[in-house]
Design goal:
alpha+beta; DUF4872 domain-containing protein; globular; Cathepsin B, Chain A; BtrH_N; 7-stranded antiparallel β-sheet; two-stranded antiparallel sheet; 14% strand; 2 domains; DUF4872
């Protein structure tokens, strides 16, 4: 058995920030999950639907691995990522760092992992690996999935090699902190402003505040869109609220990030953005509740109410991001 020493197997709400927390704590940097999410400019929105999809998807964050790349670049960390189509090379890419005493991040399809109780394909799942023996590998996943867990090496190989939406080719990554790292406090305002700018100027109508407005128009028709409303709508609601989002489609995480920032940055626009995202987080929970009720009851009025709230959310989040885009870099308080 080979185990990286000193790993704190702390399962958080969201998979990518859970893995990042493991890797960064091993490098001596212990940040809260909301801070990791916010410094990585992780918040976003997408309304995703196509003829090939059984049901639309509402996403509340940037694409898998983008958060990790953004965070590493912003903090001046050395991010080493590997991808391969070779099963042998894929194993070597994770075994070598672990043999050298360093945990590894993995992007994979959680469907194949032995400890997952709900078998749903999702190729953007991220875990931290910190050990292995002849049969199993030792991972850190979200608190919801058990925190410190293990799965068979065969199952891990299947999960890493799976192809489909949001998958990567056996992606693994390590993070190293330089001798003289950048101050993470100095990166708060740039991270917030980058996130706000992307949200306010999406390249297509399915993204950002425009995407939320589109969702407000489409959600009222979801009973007709669903193949099995009693299954599809409650599942969509569950993913929004409990599918590793931290609640409120990641808005609760971003609210808490902004709350932490108000203690470090004295800026009225920051406080305004925090107040608006506190409101938005609660409203997103209301939306998911109404969607679930519509599926359970077959009553389209619940979806009409959800659509009206989504219309309000588009405005609220646009107002929040406009305020946050005006932050002044010199506002940080030591």
């Amino acid at each position: 058995m080979t185990i990286v020493k000193g790993i704190e197997a702390r399962g958080l709400h969201h998979c990518e920030t859970t893995a990042l927390g493991v890797l960064l704590r091993h490098e001596g940097l212990d940040l809260s999950e909301p801070m990791l999410f916010g410094l990585g400019s992780g918040l976003s929105f997408i309304y995703w639907d196509s003829k090939s999809m059984a049901f639309p998807f509402l996403g509340g964050r940037v694409k898998p691995f983008e958060l990790t790349k953004s965070l590493a670049a912003r903090l001046g960390l050395t991010l080493t990522a590997e991808e391969t189509t070779s099963a042998r090379k894929a194993w070597e890419n994770v075994a070598a760092p672990i043999d050298a005493g360093r945990p590894v991040g993995l992007q994979l399809d959680c469907y194949h992992l032995d400890y997952f109780q709900t078998k749903v394909h999702f190729g953007g799942h991220v875990v931290a690996m910190y050990g292995y023996d002849e049969q199993d590998v030792y991972l850190v996943d979200t608190g919801q999935q058990g925190g410190a867990v293990r799965t068979s090496r065969a199952a891990l190989a299947l999960a890493r090699a799976e192809r489909g939406p949001m998958t990567a080719r056996n992606r693994s990554f390590t993070i190293a902190r330089p001798a003289h790292p950048l101050s993470w406090e100095d990166q708060i305002v740039p991270a917030i402003k980058d996130c706000a700018d992307a949200f306010l100027a999406p390249p297509i109508a399915n993204l950002g505040h425009r995407g939320i407005e589109k969702a407000g128009k489409q959600v009222p028709g979801w009973l007709l869109r669903a193949g099995d409303p009693q299954r599809d709508l409650p599942q969509a609601a569950l993913l929004m609220e409990r599918g590793g989002t931290g609640g409120g489609l990641f808005r609760a995480l971003y609210r808490d990030f902004l709350d932490e920032c108000t203690r470090l940055v004295d800026d009225g626009n920051l406080r305004a953005g925090h107040r608006l995202y506190a409101e938005a987080a609660d409203l997103w929970t209301d939306v998911s509740t109404l969607i679930a009720k519509a599926g359970e009851s077959g009553d389209a009025d619940h979806l009409k109410q959800a659509g009206a709230i989504l219309h309000d959310l588009s405005r609220i989040e646009k107002d929040a991001m406009q305020a946050l885009s005006q932050l002044k870099p010199q506002g940080r308080q030591r």
